[in-house]
Design brief:
Blueprint lengths: L3 E4 L9 H16 L3 E6 L9 H13 L9 E2 L4 H13 L3 E4 L3 H19 L5 H15 L20 E4 L6 E4 L7 E4 L7 E3 L7 H11 L4 E5 L3 H14 L5 E5 L2 E2 L15 H6 L4 H10 L12 H7 L10 E2 L2 H14 L2 H13 L6 H14 L6 H7 L13 H6 L2 H16 L5 H14 L4 H13 L7 H8 L1 H9 L12
Bound molecules: glutamic acid (GLU).
The site of glutamic acid has 7 residues, from loops.
Amino acid sequence: MSIITRFAPSPTGMLHIGGARTALFNALLARHHKGKFLLRIEDTDKKRSTEAAIEAILEGLAWLGLSPDDAPVFQTDNAARHVACADAMVASGKAFRCYTTQEELQTRRENGEAKRAAAKVEGVSDEQKATLLEEASILLAPYRSPWRDGGEAPGPEAQFTVRLRAPDSGNITVADSVQASVSIACEEIDDLILLRADGTPTYMLAVVVDDHDAGITHVLRGDDHFRNTFRQIPIYQAMGWDLPRFAHVPMIHGDDGAKLSKRHGALSTLAYRDMGYLPEALNAYLLRLGWSHGDQEIFSMDEAVEMFSLAGLNKSPSRMDIDKLNDVNAAFIRQADEDRLLTLLMPEIAKLTEVTDVLEARVKASLGSMKERGSTLLELAESCRFLWDSNADHLNKKARKALREEGLTHLTQLREALDQTEIWSIEAVQDVLDSYCTAHALSMGQVGPPLRAALTGGLPAPDLAPITTWLGREEVLARIDRHLPGLPGTEQK
Ligand code: GLU
């Protein structure tokens, strides 16, 4: 059997990080079995569905490398098919036209609540109380329509909904691949509405018909849909269709164990892109958040495809941990191809300063070291600041101190030596510094600080010799000159 999975988001907002994880699991399950992963946009709630949300879903999935194997399907396009299925169920006696009005339903509910309230009033005898509660429980029970066994329409123009005739007895069991299998008595299910009074299909009907028609073999989704499954199974049965396998994954919680919400951090998948996370890192993190394979923490997409199975899905909710995500992202940044990393990093740097070819060359030269200095692209871009900014106007206290008399003397002489060295390489510059220390019986602790202060003004940066090679001789001398008295164009701090 070829496996077909789907991700079925409602386009009512951003692509939620939990949705991205559901899409990832579905894509991995399909890819592991060399099956198909499909996308269905569940846009039946016309008031809340937006083009922008559809775009965000497609863009987010594409960014994560989780684009579907076929063109996305839009649920509203299938409305005629949903109606035809409802009609077929009416024809076979599995569903019926229900003429109960909204008002009648409301009255039923209100009467039920009134009786329940009356049972609590003081002074009501035990006998009265039992009767009231019994009547209330009938009125508040899942609705079984008086029309379920047929009957004449109240009039030629009478409005009706189409309801599924809920099974009269027995149990409905959800045999889930993640959760324990759960059964409920059929009495707990109402005669659920398949077509509303305006003839439009309900979500419950649409989702079952679409999953069946697409040949979905595995419905893998958040466990917020677990209860819906009890209502969807009778629709499959009424249509005489095989059930797919269900797998409901627990929700992602925040670090405090509460349901994930804005106060825990960004919820939108694309916000993580914009914060400088790599898609492969977010995938690897989301994968571990709800699935495990021994103790392995970091997976490439290829490894994940190879190892994924429903058996590894966790039964309990997972907690979003940004520090962990940062660690995973840092690991992926370090192993990323440097040309790609440069392409991703330069736009972030462009948000901080004007990018020139010279600057790009400096970033490229430094990337092998600099990629260790940040857990997101944004942090990396900020760590690279010394490559375009000597910080001379904002010297910190330590740098100011290093550039006092003695420091300036060393700096003047170092400048001379740096100007004269023939080769400009890490080793050559290191040699210049070492020789200067030896010649003057100084330690690097005395010579390094003034040079570092002149070059980076106290901004965080790696070792001096590599810095000088990334900046180039001309820039190094110019940065030194800004601090030396008496040279043309220098400022004295
Ligand atoms: N459209 C539903 C949602 O976005 C998902 C339906 C399903 O996966 O069955 O929550």
